[in-house]
């Protein structure tokens, strides 16, 4: 069932959707700042691997169980010095901040990968030894085809929380 447009446009889709399904959501910022671009993120943002990019990494919980590490990546040349580069949660939303800077959503590409967890992922998500993760890499581009947001979501491959559908015509970064 598609996500209601009011939910899709909320400040936190995860928090709103979880509450709607009677799940107690939580989120906390793990890191916000500059870091070198990994090879797969660099390709999405069209920068060189190792170039400094803005990373905003947070963990989401459902009923106090860690379920997701979500990291938003932005090109420092486009978003450095903006509120997107600041360490706190962006209000009302990242989407609104991107749009306020003049970028309109054009299209996105997603890649789904199942793989063994890194030590950081296993520790953060409190995974059992040998448990795999699912990595969803969503690269979003504005109408001028500039890469403006890459979202890497890491979830336990064994913990399904809920399905979120897209509402036609209302896609966001």
TrEMBL record:
SMART domains: UTRA. Residues 20-161 form the UbiC transcription regulator-associated domain. Pfam families: UTRA (PF07702). SUPFAM superfamilies: Chorismate lyase-like. Gene3D superfamilies: Chorismate lyase-like (3.40.1410.10). It comes from the Bacteria. Signal peptide: none annotated. This is UbiC transcription regulator-associated domain-containing protein.
